[in-house]
Every structure is written in C-alpha cells, then in structure tokens.
Amino acid sequence: MESHVAALLRKYEVPDRRSLARLVAATGGTPARGGLPVPVTAFLGRVAERAALLETLAGHRLVTAVGPGGVGKTRLAISVAADLAEERQDGAWFVDLVRVADPAVVVAAAAEAVGVPERLMASPEAALVASLARRDGLLVLDNCEHLASSASAVAMVHGILGDDAGRAEWLELTRDLLGVNPSPASKAWAPTFDAVVALHRGDFRAAVACLAADLDDPETWWHAGQIMYRPWYAALWAEAAVLGQLDDARPRIDRARHAARDNQIASTMVERAAAMAAGDRSAVENLAATFARLRCPYQEARTRTLVRMTPGR
User: Fold this and answer.
1) Burial label, 180 (beta-carbon count in 10 A; 0-12, 13-18, 19+)
2) Sign of the C-alpha dihedral, residues 53, 80, 85, 87?
3) Model pTM?
C-alpha cells in the first residue's frame, strides 16, 4: 500500500496524502479512472517537449513517451492530451496501469475508462475495439513499462506464425515501452522469447546465441522478475544445445533439470531434450501425450515435429 501511495504522489507531483485527497475530490473520484486527471498545480515549461509531442501525435496514431522515472512524462502527457481533447468529439480517456500487474487486465482497465457497458465486458477486447471504432477520442495509457514483456510475448507469437511484419511492430513497441532504462527482468524474458522463435524456425545457431547467458550468470538471474523466467530459459537452453549439437549438451541438460524442477512444462521440455540427446525417438514421442495432459498444445505439436528430427531408435 505504501509503495502504491508513493507512486501516486510522484506521478501527480503532489507533496503529501492530503494533496492527493484534494486531487481525488477535484476529479470526482480516483484521479486515474477515465477522463483526464486534474493537476493541483499548473503545468509550466517543457515548451519544446510539448511541441514535439503535439507534432508527433498529428502524424501518428500510436505515440510513446519514454524517459527515466520521475521526469514528468505523466504530467506532460496529461497536459498535451487536455489540449487535444478539445479537438476530439469524445475528448480523452486516461488509463493508469500502475496497479495493473497482470497484462490480461489491461484491456479491461481500458474498457472501464472508456465507458464500455458492463454487460458487454464478457468479451472486453471486442467490446473495447467496437467502442473505440465509432468514437473520436484520445486514449492515454500511463505506466506501461512493466507490461513490455507482454508486448514481447505477442511478438513471439507473430514470429511463430511467420508474420515478420507483425513481429517487427510488436518488437518496436517493446523497445518503446522499455525506454532508456530497461527493466532487469528484460534480460531474462527477451532472450527467452527470441529463442522460442529461433528454435521454431530451425535456426539453432541463433537460438544458442539468444541463450548465451549461463544459468548461473549473476547479471541475468539476480532479480525476482528474472528468476520467474529461469525454468523456461533453462529448458530452451538445453534444447538449443542438443539441436545445435553443442559439446556440452549433456551437462546443460543436467543443470537445466535442476533449474526447471518446479515447473512441470519446462521440466518436461528438459526431458524431451534429454531423450533427443539419447536418440530415443519413442521417448520423445511419448512426451507429446504428457504435454497434452498439461494442456500445452504448442509443445505437444512441437514434440511431434522433434520426433522426426531425432536420430536413433
């Protein structure tokens, strides 16, 4: 709770809880819910930044403002949005994602801010798209940087589907969300997602390059946001070593077993790599059923592909 209050104080540039309460009262509710927050103090300066943002918005439908935390990105965005809202028939909406930890909730948060009727929220994606399609307004999403991993995951899906143009767009968005100060977690999830695409496309050399960091590399695995990806990284690290025919493939498998032991799907992926290294095609094929029981259709289908790539009995 205290960390959330501190984040709000920084965001709206107010000195204490009492000032924050006045801001809530002035806006008739939570300052980050729909509409635009009404700052307690006037926005002064930043003439060049305002002009640049206005000019960019005039020529692009999606614009991302990046910069270190605390430099005033939110105040700048609100100020510019307030000016542009007067030119839009439906004004502007503000979605504060500082409290959104689950990427799946982003669409629902935006739908609520835009005013999508609750009866339509059973399918928030479709309802939000339909609502915005018939309206003329400016949607401001604030505090998106912690959702960069979701954009990177979408890029991964586009890569698996062979949509290079879509993948490029989502990777660009990922870079915009990360900004000039990438999160420590990105050192773990970015190579993991890239390696999935490389392995899917049969580019084993690229996959090995993506997974260059060792499983015990202190620069990669010290942050909580990194460690949650370690089982997946380990499974891919082992698979890439086997498919890339690296000399240390078997030691990697042993180490990956330990790293992935608490994740059923990742652990099964490691065992698949071990079966491939042993040339046991029947063992690889049997693991397809395991992935099916774990409700992982992609790895089930991939296992059937890897059976054909496994030499031996």
Assistant:
1) exposed
2) negative
3) 0.62
If one counts every other C-beta atom within 10 angstroms of the C-beta of residue 16, the result is 9
User: Domain residues for 264?
Assistant: 184-309
Whether 158 is covered by a domain: the verdict is no
8 and 103 in a single domain? The answer is yes
Distant-in-sequence, close-in-space partners of 4: CB < 8 Å, separation ≥ 6: 98, 99
The predicted-structure confidence for 194-223, as pLDDT tens digits, reads as follows 999 999 999 999 999 999 999 999 888 988
In 86-185, which ranges are continuous DSSP H helix? 106-114, 124-133, 148-160, 164-178
For residue 231, the number of C-alpha atoms closer than 13 Å in the C-beta half-sphere is: 12
Amino acid at site 118? E
Q: Give CA separation, 154 vs 28, 170, 181, 230, 311, in Å.
A: 36, 7, 21, 19, 33
Look up residue 70 and give its DSSP letter.
Answer: T
Cα–Cα distance for residue pair 46/77, rounded to 1 Å: 11
Residues 125 and 25 in one domain: yes
DSSP state at residue 298: H
How many CA atoms, within 13 angstroms, populate the side-chain half-sphere of residue 5? Answer: 9
Token readout for 131 is 């609502």
For the stretch 11-44, pLDDT in tens is 555 556 555 555 555 444 444 335 787 776 676 7
The answer to whether residue 221 is domain-embedded is yes
Helices (H), the chain: 2-11, 17-27, 47-59, 73-85, 106-114, 124-133, 148-160, 164-178, 186-200, 204-210, 224-227, 230-243, 249-259, 264-277, 281-293, 297-309
